[in-house]
Amino acid sequence: MIDSKTLDHLALLARLSVPEEEKEQLAKDINNIVKFIDVIQKVELSTTEQKEFAQKNVAREDVVMPLGSIYNLVEAAPLHKDGFVQVPKVIE
Amino acid sequence: MINDLHKKIISGEISIKELVSSYVEKAKSEKLNAFREVFDDIDEQVARAEKILAEGKATALTGIPVAIKDNIMMAGHIAGACSHMLDHHTAAYDSTVIKALKDAGAIIIGRTNMDDGAMGSSTENSAYGPTLNPYDTTRVPGGSSGGSTAAVAADLAVLALGSDTGGSVRQPSSFCGVVGMLPTYGTVSRHGLISMGSSLDVIGPIAKSVVDVQTLYNLISAYEPLDATCIKKEDRVCDTKLKKKIAIPKGIFDQGGIDPEVKENFENIKKEMEGQGFSFTEVDLPHYGDSLAVYYILMPAEVSSNLARLDGIRYGDRVGTSKVQQDLYGETRGALFGKEVRRRILLGTYVLSHGYYDAYYNKAVALREIIRKEIANTLEDYDAIFTPTTPTPAFKIGEKSGDPVSMYLADLFTVPANIAQHPAISVPSGKTEEGLPLGVQFIGPRFGEEKLFALGKVIEGVRND
Hints:
The complex is a heterodimer. Chain A is mainly alpha-helical. In chain A, 40% of the residues lie in helices and 4% in strands. Chain B has helices spanning 2-11, 16-29, 42-54, 96-104, 146-153, 170-176, 210-220, 260-275, 291-306, 325-336, 339-352, 358-381, 404-408, 415-420, 449-462; strands at residues 35-38, 65-69, 107-112, 159-164, 179-182, 202-207, 245-249, 279-283, 384-388, 424-431, 437-443.
């Protein structure tokens, strides 16, 4: 059961501010979805199955390649100056 | 349709400029909210296509107007995924599919409406309001690629591209009476697609006929290393000879919520196909029915990780004046992501969080493999798994938007193919008494696109509407 305390914790982990007035409905919606996905709990998996079917990396090996203009990518940032991304101070 | 247009262009019966202008005019004055933007560089694109034609290098797609979903990047144009998060996000480069379209001389006329971040089944989650279904404007076009399918259905574009994570090409194609395809995962490069659930996302073609979907698929399915999951052509092996044997998952109509007209249409199509020598067998797929639950664990988990990059620092917009970076993330993300996106991020964070990871995420990963095996094994003996595309025809705007779980059930039949990373096609199969389009779906073996095209053409021959 996701209560308001759990919701606050999830919001912090996800770096997502949730307005106070939305919390109740949001918790209710998420609880309904969790109830729905909980059907998978009735499926029993053996240890071998769990091992055999664990997550595997499917992406190819990384390769080094030249990239076009880095400038274009920096331009996509909301704030930038002289080819750098501008961010607030991290340490006061 | 493309072939006829191509012949007319080649013979000079119609100029590329005339053809494109007629579509651009329609797209600019449409009232369905299918387009987010009609592009302003069409004249240059037409000039490029005319040059290709003049050089005698025209292919089937030269001069053909194509619409793209708002999450596919075209350099210099906004790619916003219909999210306030990316309202001002200009694409820094061409996606691979756009490059292929440009090389062929296709005309990319604009970007289409979609659910915020491709999350939804109706386009109602778009930050810019829903698209209306061309067959009944009080109903949704389906989603998330609803703008693309409505554009093709209303003939505002000849072809369109969408993206399909759990049904987002096929479900709206069914609702809008057009053909839509989920290619095998890894056959179409996603370089330049704004990602959502990376083990599930595939770019898919949309058109009025199977043959046009086939032409567009053939163009965009080249191997390309910038998508790290793209599969080399020589590794795409499949015996595509039809056995004329089709599987139907046992018990698919047993659950509630399936419209009687959907079932009736499905049975009629089945009978027609039996008349053409196809046999149908009910096959027991014990975990097939768990696909949707597995999907609503894996997809939000991937969404919550993937969307971490949208933080107010690197792309799109930034909200708040917070001096501390941590707070700036939260403020920006809280203010600019739509409701459904926020819901999925929190749900994904939950299933990945300490104490729940094994019970949800890891279990879903294992179950996915079991479902994948069931589907792959079935498709060794049968050409395809056959179901309706959707449990109901297009629903009313607002009918399901208050209840996430009932909205999720719209993807009941489409999700298993994404879970298994198999190809699937939705083909119009008739209409309801009210005149709403219905569709049927074939899920094929991996790399068995040719089989799906062949089966789709059979449906085009037997449907009556």
